[in-house]
Amino acid sequence: MILAVLFANSDGNILIERFHGVPAEERLHWRSFLVKLGSENLKGSKNEELHVASHKSVSIVYTTIGDVCLYIVGKDEYDELALAEVIFAITSAVKDVCGKPPTERLFLDKYGRICLCLDEIVWQGLLENTEKDRVRRLIRLKPPVEP
Amino acid sequence: MASGQDSSGTTLMDLITSDPSATSTAGASSQQQSSSGVGGSLLGKPVAPTADRKSKKGTLTQIQNETISAAKALNPVKPVSYAQLVRSIHELAATCDQKSSQRQLVNSVFPKLAVYNSVDPSVAPSLLMLHQQCEDRNVLRYVYYYLARILSDNGSQGLSAAGGIPTPNWDALADIDAVGGVTRADVVPRIVDQLSAESSSDDVEFHARRLAALKALTSCSTSSSEMMEKLNEIVFGILEKVADTKQKRKKGIFTKQGGDKESIVRGNLQYASLSSLRRLPLDPGNQPFLHRAVQGIEFSDPVAVRHALSIISEIAAKDPYSVAMALGKSAQPGGALQDILHLHDVLARVYLAKLCHSISRARVLDQRPDIKSQYSSLLYQLLLDPSDRVCFEAINCVLGKGDNTESTEDRAGGWIRLTREILKLPEAPSVASKGVLSKSSEKSSKARRPQPLIKLVMRRLESSFRSFSRPVLHAAARVVQEMGKSRAAAFALGAYDEGASLNVESLDSDLENPMAEATRKPNLLSNGHGGMDTIAGLLASLMEVVRTTVACECVYVRAMVIKALIWMQNPHESFEELKSIIACELSDPAWPSSLLNDVLLTLHARFKATPDMAVTLLEIARIFATKVPGKIDADVLQLLWKTCLVGAGPDGKHTALEAVTIVLDLPPPQPGSMSGLTSVDMVSASDPKSAMALQRLVQAAVWFLGENANYAASEYAWESATPPGTALMMLDADKMVAAASSRNPTLASALTRLQRCAFSGSWEIRIAAVQALTTIAIRSGEPYRLQIYEFLHALALGGVQSNFSELQLSNGENQGASGTGLGSLIIPMLKVLDEMYRAQDDLARDIRQHDNSKQEWSDEELKELYETHERLLDFVSLFCFVPRAKYLPLGPTSAKLIEIYRNRHNISASGGLSDPAVATGISDLMYESKEVQKETNTVQSGIDPDLAMAWAAGLEDDVWANNAPAVDKVKDFLAGAGTDAPDVDDEEYMNSRPSVGYDDMWAKTILETYDAEEDDGRYSGGSSPESTGSVETSISSHFGGMNYPSLFSSKPSSHGATQQTIREEPPSYSTSVLQRKESFENPLAGRGGRSFGSHEDEDKSSGNPQSGKALYDFTAGGDDELNLITGEEVEIEYEVDGWYYVKKRRPGRDGKMAGLVPVLYVSS
Predict the structure, then answer these.
(1) CATH assignment of A2-139?
(2) Can the keyword Coiled coil be found in this entry's annotation (chain B) (predicted)?
(3) pLDDT tens-place string over residues B1084-1124
């Protein structure tokens, strides 16, 4: 289960968040935990360099893409390596939508599309599509494989 | 929460709608926001509870904001409000045939609306209209997006399962709904109808819309059976048409390039239907369900195959037989499952590994070894997978790791499998992989000859540890940890022996002999070095690599490596290296406390797996106590001490106790540093916080020592053979000490340490030490009791200074009670001991008299004796727990007389429920100690691993079967649970938490207990045993529920937690304090209600807690408050100032059972 996908800017403001299977009262904790994790470790880290953390049986993988930080929390089959796959799918889709690693402005300009992409990649806590071509087609309401 | 989200929502909306040229100001405003409102989430500080609690107040401010922003809406630069967006949707939907409206929707309205996690139902009609009339794909895609959100919304406070920023005026809208607006109940059926009609249509041209509609439908909540039925119908309807193709999937990843239109459309539909099937609730008994899933593994779409496999693997975990039957021949060479080995989807292969694991381990398939071996062989082939994720999963599966519920046998079997099995590839391996993944073909060509699994695995892990990717390192370390667990299990069952390694060695060389290839040489070489190519050798080289990984800069990776090292630590090897690694690591201030506690819990788990390692683990735990006292959970540490102490066996007990007492030898915190509580410069042993924590820990250790020294030393007053008279003969203190230490060095050394603590520690520690000494005095026989008595006496009077001359020199203060500040505490203790000795003297005199005059004891005399006995028992019970049935305050000689009296008057000695000790479960202590002794003896004499395991398992039942938070923590950890949110703020806010104020708490307790005791007036004099009892209570409260780790203490009864105490203090402590209190105060309840059982009954009947239900979510704002979730059932204990003290049926997510909640939040 992918428990959370969360985008934040470098100030720690949350831009997009998707929780699945996380009770409402715990979301705030996760938010602050992740943002704190990022503020401690992401400064000066390379673009798309993967970072890892864990909390009990839950894995966390996070990275920066352009000006934006991306955090993913998962458990069970979504361990740190599977989350690395997920994060790769998301970053490549974001780069595809924005045309490059986004600045915060660019990210917000493409906000709607990024939300759609996210929906195609992680749906109800499960990884769905990983290929960026497929995702690109799906967010334009085209079939995943074109005749 | 609402406030945090809202403000961040506004920020986000600000950011999004702000003019690009004005980015800098937007950034500034966001920063401003973050320093004020959003700061909560940024810094991990919980949002102010008042704002949190009052969601209604939040709504009000929202509406206020709403009106303000609506008023400012004329100004185009200002952020757009939700209401405006909704209005534009309504308007634009009416004109959706115009290009300009479409553009506006796609470019501005919909993206901005996406900021909110959901839309309210009033938007649905417009969306449905767009869905029907608009043809622009981009608009439609958004329409599906929002329809799905409306469907998934569970209706509670606008929070959908997907999370996000709540719709700002949701509550206000809900009110409008109630008076006749559009409600969810109105729109959801319409949405479902429209979407299901669309997803059932067969029009090829629109099949993309069909997919999207189906996907949106899957988001509706699974709780509605009606919707599930509908969805089922649609999905199976589609599968009916598309799944039954006999056309084989083309291999490799180039599928999508070939194929005609029809098959592509079919492939897409297969994907969509399986993706929906995956979201349907699992239905293990349902054959069509399984059948469709099994068909799915032959589909052309890799994502569809992944979903199919995940469904099958989940069913296989429950019902392996039918899955194996349904899969039939797919596992054979050339079958569909073999093709998946080369499928370009990592998770699909992961699920394949899980599936193979379930089937190859299934007991029900024991009759079909052929099937099992097919799946095992598939699993072993996955060890060669190019993806680390798949390979690691396969290793875990081989090792027998399941869902954390696997038995020790499974684990041990896994280790045997790993070390003995050989991977033989089928004759024509990897037909399809050529050219696809050069890496994999390379690997498979290398691996063509049979290979022992262990070698493959080791090689793979070693190379993974050279990776630069943190996830890979973390995962590899985790695999090594799992390996350690399996190995420990094999050890525990005696299945691990050096013979095994030789075995593999011979097998290995047997296999390699026929093919004398170049690879043989290195083996020979290594053999030549004398480094046998055994399992031990392989492991050693792996561990070498693992150790180097400690150099990783990421603490989480290092933590995992340390856990792996702890698990891989062999009980018979030296652990110096591990110790030094951990010691080094702990000096790094970067470690968060949660991680350290995790490592501590790993020690627990390791101990449970191998009780032999108790001493080793205690040594390691000691490093934690000394290096990072401020960061670890003293409760968990104590529990570890205790379990290790019990587990260490008769030989290890002394060493175990020593390991605990080493904490006492730590340098005391600097007196000056305690004052500057607010300045936290850096984390070191001298900063106030860790100084305080260290002190807490020392207190904990002192207390632990007092409670458990008797157990560790196997010295019990009620088993002591020395009659009191003999002890009195040895009044010369030096002789006494000499005799004591020669008879029982463990207890003697514990006494020495405690005596030192009674002098040198801080005031709190001194008190704890005196308490501990009293406990030991009461529980031990002579000469220890006398020794302690002597000591306390000296302490109280301040006389007999010669005894402590050196100490006095070093300390420089008056050694008397006035100097130690302990007078009021010691006097009642001495009084009890005095009473005991006096009674013993009286008894000795009476016996002599009776003997001399050859006179029988009259009933009156016996009665008097018995009453004295009971009275003393009551006194003693105020200080510590003793088994009432066995404890003889009058000494062993009184046993016979009391027995006579009891028999005459039919007083049951064991007392049953009327014995407080039994009622609270502490009189197991006799039982327990005997039991453990007996069993450890058997373990010692005949090393029977089964028995040892049984004993270890029994341990769990005895020792772990209570409710204390630390125990829960450990249990959770062992069960692999814990997806709850991490606690961010424990470090920074330790001092600022409202309820902690350590000194205040202390002072308050003292004052209040003293007040209470003045009212009490049952005993003459300024201080009474009760007061000391209460003081002890307050001491233990400082350790946060310290009563559980003692072998002597009561197991906290889950319901008796909160019955008393209103008069004492604001219930700012944990429940354990209250429990403790109860146990001490019960004797105060008067002679009649002395016994525990009856008293509890009384409480139950009179207290009669009211039950209630949580009306809203409530987030605790302090330690004494309790989190509530709407609908949770609670018992209301009492009301204070607009707060209820309530108790839950089960501990909540935070492990708390009881606490304060606002009255308005609970319906009574």
Answers:
(1) 3.30.450.60
(2) no
(3) 333 333 333 334 333 433 446 678 888 888 888 777 888 88
